[in-house]
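Weekly structure sync, notes
Attendees: PL, DS, HV (note-taker this week)

Item 1: 4-alpha-glucanotransferase
DS walked through the input record. Source organism listed as Pseudoalteromonas espejiana. Sequence as pasted into the shared doc:
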Amino acid sequence: MDALSQLFYLHGIGYEFTKYTGEQVIFSEDTRKRALQCCGVNTENDNQVAHLNYELDAATWLELTPNTSLFSLTDKLLHVRIDERQLGQHFSVSISELNLNFERENLHGLAVTGEYYLHDVRYIEVAVPLATMPVGYYSAVVKVGEQSKQTQLWATPEKVYQVDDSKRTGLSIQLYTVKNKAGLGVGDFNDLLELCELCAQQHMDYILLNPLHLLFAEQPERASPYSPNSRALLNPLYISIELCGDSNNNAQLNTLLQSDEVQAIINKHEQFIDYELVSRAKYTLFNALYTHFEATASSARRDEFNLFCEQNQSTLKTLNSANPSFDYYLQWQARLQLNICQQHCLDAGMAIGLINDLAVGCAGDGVEYKSQQPLFSENANVGAPPDPWAEAGQNWGLPALNPQQLKNEHFSFYRALIQSNMQGVGGLRIDHVMALRRLWWCFENNHKQDGCYVYYPFEYLLAILKIESHLNKSIVIGEDLGIVPPEVKHALASSGIYSNSLFYFEKQHDGEFLPLEHLPKHCLIMIANHDVPPFCGWWQLDDLKIKQQYQLIDEQQYHQQDQLRKTEKQRLLRFINRHSHERLSENSNAMTVYSELAKALAHANTRLFALQLDDLDKQTYPVNVPGTNTEYPNWRRVLTHTSKEIFQNNASTLAAINSIRKGYA
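Item 1 (cont.): predicted structure, written out as tokens:
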């Protein structure tokens, strides 16, 4: 293997992939070089290439352990690398946090799990059995004879946190679309609190949220929750004025609520959110809340606020705010209200409660990127390889993390990111979970768009999920739609991570929908999500009409897709009619078909089944049309009815699904 090929391998630059057509595509050397160059490597500098190869390969055998050591609580083995001549030397591990000190007279007789020859010396990796310990991260000192190494030892469970193996039903929502009880134009945490109560009354166990990440207050029309300012911070627009303690006896706030600016929003009933107007009004009200806090807060409340700031100091500092106390106050209030909603879920008997959603990346001009810029590659974005809907591939415009830099400070960036998104919820859905293993990088190469897969330290990222899920008592769902490498599917399944399926895509080779008994068990199944049309829109072909209206397809494409949809509807009817006493046809009402489909899927052994609030509200407009930006009003469509009305209108369907899932039917 030549030096450059070795560096491609060690640095995680992919060699090939299998295209959706089944064709094996091998990346050119020029493409792979460009990926390395995006990581700051001068591929024409032989000395730099040789040095990096040494650091990433041979040098790792000269240390007893890596800087971060994985310790599986299943086999309880610590892997140590030594010169084989050290086998007879004294061995010890000390972990001060646990007051644990483990010693052996020598390392003879232990299993050898790897070997490496350097300068005619054989180095071996041996598996040293240790005692069990609590899940977590610990500072450890490893010694063999006179050689020692300080490492961070990760005590990692076999699986992520689990709830008991029962069938669970939940609700999937885009919180901003929920009809706001206060009339302020965007769904907030008080609306979520009402949904928690409604779901509990229907014996549901969870609410799956859209990403609640911080967006851009100065550019409120940048509304995509999947292209955020920061994934570790919350979007203040979700703060409920009513739920905030500083709304009580607040004369300035009461005056502002009667102002023309706020009343214009309250009296406005539009199909799409005007983020410019809503943001301006809500931030005016936020200022009144903060001013009241500054003037009237008790010492106990100030202490609570200061403690929040202290505990979240590193994350809050990334805001680089001109008015930090105000912005920190908003983060405090958002976190408090999210916690109130989760606690209400648990108090009401919901087994899981809220499930957060983690976007795959952040915007290239946001505070997450700017505060962590050394961790990112240069001029590479993440996206997706060519598929039937985008033959040229997709560039999502999100900067790509450098897999080698991600390891810095014991993966502190990724750990903090997962911690913040598991805080105050009962579960975490990870968008595009393949990113744990590999991401498609998009970059310019000789003035042309190019791309390849780049691989990440999968075992470590997976270990963080396992550890944090136990520390936070949070289940984990991996959105694995599309082409997922077999090793990723296997690792996720054996780690107890729920997969995520859309019924639309669960098909046999002949195109028919999978029978119920073939649907995956340890999975979250949904009929639709934010990237596909709501069911009524799909059944009535409204999504095709919208695409034609916005000139996303021409008349010929419309007729082609119309014919394909008719075939799909017939397949859907065949699936439903196998499980329903209702005799349905293409002329059946969309909600009747939806209700029968939902009841049929309720019989599946799939452990998590989510109903989408948009579907229950008979929405026809999609909340997002993939592949569009400003052509279609993405992330803005508001629900037609209040949450209470939606639940009342679907009472019989919800009761039937609950009966089926709980085994009463």
